[in-house]
Amino acid sequence: MKMVEKFKPSNAILIKADRPSSAKPIQFYDFNHDEQKEIIITYEIKAKEQPSPSQFGVMILKKEKDGNWRKLFNDHVQGVDLDFSVLADITGNGVNDYLWGVTIGAAAGSQLKVIHWNGTSFKEIADEPYHKIDLVKGNKKLGIAAWHMYLGDSHLVDVLKWNGEKLVYDQELYSTYYPIIEKFYKNKIRKLDAWYYWYCLADAQIKANSFDEASKSIKKGK
């Protein structure tokens, strides 16, 4: 699209995020319900000296009533990969928010940013570190499962929901997501009976209010 080329930095290339698999470098969504979809583009500006980290960017463009396009939002994060890019109603107001995550490094993991349309402008309302990420659908609410690296390929998991001001732990959504965590660790333990898998499983069981199961996991992990 010529219009996208006009706005993106001249030294940038359009790229799609690794996840979800349906992610595209150009997305369309009508944030303000004026029957004119805004355009979201994701791109990379490679460092002049490799293998230095690149700059990964997102830009949101809007077509005005006079037919001209203008830039409503633009942000950059330095990192090694564009990991995540999705539209989802995290705030629960009926309008999708834009979520994007950039991988900083193998140990540091990735940084998620939540961009919200408040009726007049776009604003970053939350950022969350993670190593793996999922969206969690509950009863009339949507949350974020953030996996944080603990030891090796084990992770501690938080499931977060927007409370009107920030992302906070949500026990109901955690219980909804727990079977995925349990399956992950039981598969790991089947291959390697390591204490740190039991520890992370017990952490998940405690957060899901499965205290008896957590007690068993703690004993097995000793």
Protein architecture, described:
With 222 residues, the protein is of the alpha+beta class. It is built from four helices and 13 strands. Strands 1, 2, 3, 4 and 5 form a five-stranded antiparallel beta sheet that branches. The longest helix is centred in the C-terminal third of the chain and has 21 residues, at 171-191.
State the CATH class of the domain at 1-130: Mainly Beta
Principal-axis shape equals: globular
- Separation of termini? 59 Å
CATH-level-2 architecture of the domain at 1-130: Beta Barrel
Portion of residues in beta strands equals: 35-45%
What is the secondary structure topology, with strand pairs?
Layout lengths: L1 H6 L5 E2 L11 E4 L8 E8 L8 E10 L5 E11 L1 E8 L8 E9 L3 E9 L4 E9 L1 E6 L4 E10 L2 E9 L4 E3 L1 H21 L3 H13 L3 H10 L2
Helix pairs in contact: 2-3, 3-4
